[in-house]
Structure formats: structure tokens, C-alpha cells
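Exercise 3.2. Students should predict the tertiary structure of the chain below and write it as C-alpha cells, then compare their answer with the key that follows.

Predict this chain's 3D structure.
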Amino acid sequence: MARKPVEVLPAELAGPSGAQGEWAGPATGIEEILAEVLGEVMHVERVPADCHFFDDLGADSLMMAHFCARVRKRADLPSVSMKDVYQHPTIRSLTTALADTAPALVEAPVPAPAEVPKRASTRQYVLCGAVQLLCFLAYCYLAALLIAQGYDWMSAGSGVVDVYSRTVVISVAGFVVVGALPIVAKWLLIGRWKPQQIPIWSLAYVRFWIVKTLLRFNPCGLALVGSPLYVLYLRALGAKVGSGVAIFSRRLPVCTDLLTIGDGTVIRKDSFFPCYRAHAGRIETGAVTLGRNVLIGERTVLDINTSMGDGAQLGHASSLHSGQAIPDGERWHGSPAQPTELDYLRVAPARCGTLRRAGFCAVTLASILFVYLPLVERGLDLAVSWGLSMGGVLGASGAAATLRGVTSGALVVSLVLFLGAVLGGLLLMGAVPRVLNRFVQPGRVYPLYGFHDRVRRAIAWLTNRRFFPHLFGDSSYIVHYLRWLGYSLSPVEQTGSNFGIQVSQANPCLSSVGTGTMVADGLAMVNDEVSSTSFCVSPVSVGPRNFVGNDVAYPAGGRTGENCLLAVKAMVPLDGEVREGVGLLGSPSFEIPRSVERDSRFDHLRIGEALCRGLAAKNRYNLRTICIFLAARWLAVFLVTVIDLVAFELGAALGHVVMAVLFAASLVVSALYFALVERCVGGFRSLQPAYCSIYDPVFWRHERLWKVAALEYLHAFDGTPFKNVLWKLMGVRVGKRVFDDGAFITERTLTSIGDDCVLNYWSKIMCHSEEDATFKSDRTTIGAGCTVGVVALVHYGVRMGDGSVLAADSFLMKGEEVPARARWGGNPAREI
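Answer key:
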């Protein structure tokens, strides 16, 4: 049996006749042409019609992506997608499937090409950036003015009671001002949102950007998510939200007047419904309409101009593309969504009246205003006072003495704060949730907005701090950290890459991962079921010897067992037989081969003495990476502390303008600092495409770059020209006037983005793949004028032609070639 490319296939693959190179039965013209194209890709002379692409030929998904791309370029062949190949894995079965759809393909109208992008001039681009910079400085000046006034008034207090009273007054005033600012800005700058198109980089776009930024980074709005107060907040912004609505997603909508939510609807975590999208050089706003008693699952996306009728459901890891509508009472899932019989509402309702909701709101506000904010403010006040007093700053004279004193104070304060937060946070995250977990019983239905609900939220909040998975992930130490949180991982087969740097859960004590399973970044263990009135917690278990790809949400009751591959963004099935020994791809997922011959070439490094040597070397390298991570993070805290202490010291003498400039500088310095750190760690060299074992130092260097990067700082520059400058400093080849609304790029130096491209919120360009012990990376090129939709993911080795469009929540698989001005979408993506 042939496993590697050869000139002529051996006789056992030549079909029933046994004659080498003969077709196994009658062939059509399409069949012969497909075989010819596949032979060119596989570098073989002839391919029998009944050869299995993966089992017999040893092909992998990258080879088959190249095959699909070549087929699409042929005018005499119908279009073929990767899903077609997986579902019809021989030339003959694929030909039959294409023949069955041929009449529809002939009769269907030719799809309209993607819209020609609207290009702004360089003058508009620069002017927009200048206005955004002025707005940012104005915001910093206002913040400096309020902070200085509040700090002076609070510090004038005498006695514990007086100081606490003043602190509470400052907390209430600050909460009201910060919370009301986006509301006031929205009504003054926008009025009511209407369906419209706003040219990117125009002055109209600046107004949109101000409102969007104030909403997206507003701490008060984020603090209210999940409570009835958040419904009131959205109503103040113009949204039409009914009674009894529960919204747990922290992805705040922007064009709120276009959002309609009926009574009793529940929207679960990590759902996106912004009511706008960036497309072809424009911001397009559109309605999202949800009826009564609607259920929106976890990790879902609602594009503009979508709707759901009363009692409708949209499952986990699903999306509605623009123009889709779910009728009353129907259940849909997938990306794009399609009808299903599966019921995603898996918890019974409970009594949850107005009094309970009002009590929850009162306790929430009281804890924020009278406990949390006063503690934070007093802690910062003490830190500033301590830092300024170090080295005799307040009594010193001269700029040099002041700078030395501030530096000494910042050094001590930053060390105490950083080490205290790391050690204290690690202790709290392991101890407190174990105690709280005793108050919630798995499988029992509890009403929302009560004691048990607060316990559930506290466990999730404490155990989902991003710092520690980032610190320990991609190393052997993540296993010990997750066990400390409460995960059941025994017995562990250590690989040094058991988990990535992003893993989340609703309840770690109800989470288990089987022996030999490896998990990439972005796994979410969905331990809770939620309705608009009730919740329950349930165990979630990932089977043994699995590989879980990036951005997978694994719900309770997932129907996967031993030895499964869950591909990137795959939907975990909740019905049917338990899948074992297969791969699952797409949303809704379908079966693919668990692995291919090419990916097993490094399996010998996972056993015996080779594993011991490789793991020991990897552990030593990862330990150095962790030290670099901690040192880089502490130094960032130190730099910000120095700048902020100087701002307080000079602000009192030189005025609030100086303080505002220094506050703004702390953000800019942080972003530039981490860009420089990444380039230093990478030796100021670009990454090269790789195909290696996870025990190869080439892979370890990739892991180090993932870990040391602090991309969260970049989001402060979303939607501005300055984001492109930072990407360039980090090694991305960025064209002119690129619009980035909050994208992630994992391998910066392997990514090319053309002029006038549009990257939507939470979109991702991921130039690598890891499956079991094999790591692969390659360059990805996004052509000029392309659009990548909200939460869409572009894999490695991809080329998007100029002006092409990838729809929201789509997964563009490795090696795909999207023609110029084509429109693709879905998971996995294909032409639409």
C-alpha cells in the first residue's frame, strides 16, 4: 500500500482488474479529469477511481486543499470544497456527488462577486488618526482632572470613618460618571442608530469609533453583565429589551438602537451581536431581532440583519449569517445555521420573580460601591503615597533627586504588587472555589439571582483569570495548575504540551480530561446550563487520547469518547452515538480521518527513552520561558508605575495637562515595550514555515513567542491607524490603510495583509497547526481589499485573493486558495 508519493501506484491500488494504472470501472470525463488533477497534486502518474484519498493515498488535508483549489480553477469542472472531499473520499464517489448536483449548478445563477472595497485616501487615513489621537488625549485629560481632584479631596480626610465616607462618595461619583459617559456620548454624537453605511476613516467613522470604544472598554457596563441592571443599561443606550431577559455575554453591542430582544430570552457567554460589521471599506449597521423566550448558545455570532422568532434556539458554536432568520419555535445550529431537532434548553425553569431580581441588583451595586471600589481606591492611594515617599521624594529637591526617588519607589511598589498578585492570586484561585463548590450540587436546578447563583459566578470568576493559564500553558506545569484548580486529570501522560495558554471553565471541580489527551488554545468547558430563570451545573468530561483543536467549546453531554480529533472551531455533537476513533470537523461537525500517515512520522518521539530526553529538554526550555514571561510582565508593571508616579508628582506642580500626557504615555509605552520584547525574544528574525515534532526547538520558539506577547494591550488601538504601526513593529507585513477592529495574529512574521483590508472584531489569523506530536506552520497571505468577518479564523498556508470576503464565524482551512473577489463562508468555509 502506497503511503508516500510515487511515480506509479502499486498493483494493489489499481482496482479489481489488478492492472496497474487501469480505472476500477467505467469512468466519466469528470472522473478522468479529477484523477488527473489529483495525480498532479500527489505527484503520481495515475490514480485509480476507488482509491481512498486518506487511507490509501496517504493524503492529508493540506494536499486535498491544494487539490480543491486546482479543481476550482478549471472551467470544465464544478467547484469542490474540503467538505465534499471528506464526505466523498474517492474519485468515483466525488464524481457521483458532483454529477448529482450538476443540474442545480448549471441552472443556478452565477454568484455575484464580492463588493468592490471603498478605498479611503491617505489624507483621510492620516486625518482620522490625528482626530482619534486628540480624542484620546482629551479623555486622558478629563480622567487626570477627575482623578487629581478626587485624590486630593479623599486624602484630606481625617479618621477612618471620614476617609471611608469620602472614598465611598468618590466611588459613587466615579461609577456614575464612567457609566454615563458612553450613554451621553452616544446620544450626543449619534442620536439613534439606523441601518446605514459609514465609510471607514471618515469623520462620521470617528463618531462611531468614539461610541464603540467607550462602550467596549467601559468597566461599569462590564461589571453589570449578567444582572438585570445590564438590561436597564442597554435600554438607556436605546436597545429594545423585554422583561426577564438574561444576558451573560461580555461582548457588548454597539449599535444598540438596532437590537431588539423579547421577554424571557437568554444569551449565553461569549456570544457576539454587535449590530454592525466592517465590510469592503465601510461600517455597515443592521438589525438583530430576537423574539420571546429565545435561547442563544455559547460562542455564537449574530451578523447584522438576522432574526429569531419566539421560542427559537441557536446552538453552541453556531452563527446566523446576514439575512438568515429562524422561524418561531425552530432549533438551528451550525455555521451558517441550519435546522436541527436537538434541544439546547437543558434546564427546567425556576421561580425567579421581581423581588429576587431587585434584591440581586441592590446587593450587586452595594458590593461594587461600598466594598470593591473603596478597597481598590484605598489600595491605589496607599501604593501612590508609599511610592512617592520612598527615597525622600516629597522632601527632595531637584529633578534628578525626584527621578531617583520615584524610580526607587516604583521598584518596591511594583515588586510588592506583582509578586503579591501572583502568589496571592494563585492561592485564592485554588482554595476559595473548593470551599464554594460545596454549596452547589451537580444536576440540581437553582433559580437565578440568588445565593447559589452568586456562588456559581464567583467560582467562574476566580478560576478564569487569564494570567495563570498564560504563565503555565504550553508546558508541563499547566497540568499541576489545573489540578490545583480542581480538574480531574489522573492519570496524566505528560507531553509538555498537554494544554495551551487559553483554557476556561464554568466549574473546574466538575471538569475532567482523559489520559493522553492534548488540548490546544481556546478550550471552554461548558459546565453550566442556563435559562432566563434558572441554572444547573454538570460534569464535563473529555475522553482519553483525544486531540482538541483551537477554540472548541465542549458542553456537558458531549458525545465523544476515546481517540477523537476535534478540529479547530469544531462543534461537539450532543446527539447520536458516541464518536470514537474519528476526527470531527466543522459546525455542525462531520467525521473525518482521525489522523493521516504524514502526521505519524514523529510518533516514535512520544515513547520510551526518546520521550524522556525530549520532555526533559522541553521542560528546561519552558522553565526559561516562564522566567522570561514573569520578568517581562514585572518590568512592564515597573515602567507603568514609574510613569504614573511621575504623573502624580509633576501633576501637582505643573498641572493636569502634564498628568494627562503621562497617563496616555503609560499605555503607549506598554504597547511599544511588548512589541520590543517580542522582537528581542525572536532575535529580530522572522519565523520560517516549519514541519516538526513538538520536541523540536523550532516549535519551542513558537511557544515562547505566543507566551511573551501581550496582545491585550493592542486592543486599546483597535480601529485606529496606530494598530497597524504596532503590527509592523511586531513583524506583520501590513499594507496601507488596513482596518483592524480587534483581530488576533498568532505568528506575526508569517502573516501578510494587503492594502485596504478589513479585519473584524475577534477575527483570527493563525499560521500554525498542532495535532498530537506534530507541529506545522506556513505563511498566510490576505490580499488587498479583503474582508475577514467577525470571529472568522484563517488557517495557515492560506491565500485570499484581492477583494475576497470571508463571512462571520467562518473557518478557512489550511492551504485554501480563495479566488479574487470571491465570497466564502461557513465552517469549514466554501464559496457562497
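Discussion points: The longest helix spans residues 608-654. The longest strand covers residues 276-279.
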